[in-house]
Design a protein that fits this description.
The longest helix has 36 residues. The protein has one domain. The chain has 66 residues and is mostly helical. It is elongated.
Length: 66
């Protein structure tokens, strides 16, 4: 019984990590597109856009249940 519970917990954490990795990849692609699309942006603008993209990925997680 304990082994079955441990396996279920392990599978849950693996699935959770995959979902977080998907969100991280979406955020990373957005940051890369921003950095290559607007190379003359100041460091402050880079930080603000990264924060905005982070908020967008959080809302994406909330509404799509990733």
């Amino acid at each position: 019984m304990i082994i079955i519970i441990d396996t279920k917990i392990l599978k849950y954490f693996i699935q959770m990590n995959i979902n977080y990795m998907k969100l991280y990849i979406i955020w990373l692609i957005g940051v890369i597109i921003w950095n290559f699309g607007v190379p003359q942006a100041s460091p402050l603008e880079d930080v603000l856009v990264a924060i905005l993209l982070s908020l967008l990925t959080i809302s994406l997680k909330k509404y799509t249940k990733l």
